Amino acid sequence: IGICIPGLCRHYYNNQYWPSKIETCNDESVLSWLESHLVMIPMEPRQPGCSVVEGKDITETKVQALAKAADGCWEAIMNKDLKAFAAAYKASFDAQVDMFPAMIQGTVPAYIEKYEKQVMAYKMPGAGGGGYLACVVENAETFANEHKEAIRLTIRRRR
After folding, report:
1. Which of 62, 102, 119, 149 is deepest in the core (most CB within 10 A)?
2. What is the pTM assigned to this prediction?
3. What is the pLDDT of residues 2-38, one digit of tens each?
4. What 3-state class would DSSP assign to 25?
5. CB within 8 Å of 141: residues ≥ 6 apart
6. Residue 10 pairs with which residues in a beta bridge?
7. What CA–CA distances, in Å, run from 142 to 37, 130, 135, 154?
8. CA 46, 123, 28 angle in degrees (round to 5)?
9. CA dihedral 129, 120, 152, 132 (to 10 degrees)
10. Structural element, H or E, at residue 74
11. What contacts 159, CB < 8 A, 6 or more positions away?
């Protein structure tokens, strides 16, 4: 639902499908900063029969690790701290893969290997398993100029 709300959204869940609370940030300096450090790299789509939930291992400890990483991402973004953002972003990816190891299948490892030394952090948006590699970079404009496949992001603003 985050793509339906302008700005940057943070969802709070309390054992329900729908978030119990949605926090938003529409601060132009924060949104511009974030756009200047994110790119998407197109990957191949999931292969037929791919199930990212196969072999899932969801435990309270692993969910807490993901929640801690998400909190770290939000705080780093609000503080415009690129190093902390990249660390929390990568921790978020690691926590997701720890719960859903089948996210890493097909050509995903090859894409990660190709870009991991050129970006500060990476993860797969959505349910994982293919589509895009979302990357934290020093400078999105420079990265996109050097890597024509990279897509710069634009965060929707309020009208």
Report:
1. 119
2. 0.93
3. 778 999 999 998 888 899 999 999 999 999 999 999 9
4. strand
5. 36, 152
6. 23
7. 10, 25, 13, 16
8. 120
9. -10
10. helix 60-78
11. 6
